[in-house]
Design goal:
With about 170 residues, the chain is mainly beta. The chain folds into two domains: about 45 residues, no CATH class; about 80 residues, Immunoglobulin-like. Strands 11, 12, 14, 15 and 16 form a five-stranded antiparallel beta sheet that branches.
């Protein structure tokens, strides 16, 4: 059953209307919509008012920044010239969530913005990661993939002093 509330808001719906906050009067006191415990009936089901987003004149009001529900992952062969591939994660958030990618080696940004990275000689001895950034009207957040260490070349030296005996 939805909570009872009195009509009217103590403020408007955002700075584009000249107000600094949005609150609603419930049980004789004004408070943020998120704290009011209100429910709105949509499609026959009640939804918490704090889960809703209001769009006025093209501007979203009352939403949340993106949240990562499944982390992105990185896979590939750790050798010069091989391709590392970033599998995108899953994001939720209010309004449209736009996801972009960048790369880093030992926490230093390296060239690239796509889902793949060709391992370079400059990556040797470093851990390479894909960085996924999710952005919406309320902010942005990043999530790193697992890292893949790129080993250096190695060689095997033989001692030619072997005489065949034991």
């Amino acid at each position: 059953m939805p909570s009872a509330f009195s009509t009217g808001f103590s403020s408007g719906f955002g700075s584009q209307l000249g107000f600094s906050e949005t609150s609603i009067k419930k049980n004789g006191a004004y408070g943020p919509i998120a704290d009011a415990g209100l429910k709105v009936k949509l499609g026959g089901q009640y939804v918490s008012a704090s889960d809703l987003t209001l769009k006025i004149n093209g501007v979203y009001i009352g939403g949340v920044t993106p949240s990562n529900t499944v982390a992105p992952t990185l896979a590939g062969v750790a050798a010069i010239g091989e391709i590392l591939t970033c599998t995108p994660g899953t994001w939720v958030g209010t309004a449209e969530v736009i996801v972009s990618h960048s790369w880093k080696a030992d926490d230093v940004v390296i060239p690239g913005t796509g889902l793949t990275h060709v391992v370079q000689a400059t990556d040797v001895g470093k851990t390479v990661r894909c960085v996924e950034r999710a952005t919406n009207a309320f902010g942005s957040i990043t999530q790193d993939t697992n890292g893949i260490f790129i080993p250096g070349a190695f060689s095997v030296a033989f001692n030619n002093d072997f005489d065949g005996g034991i």
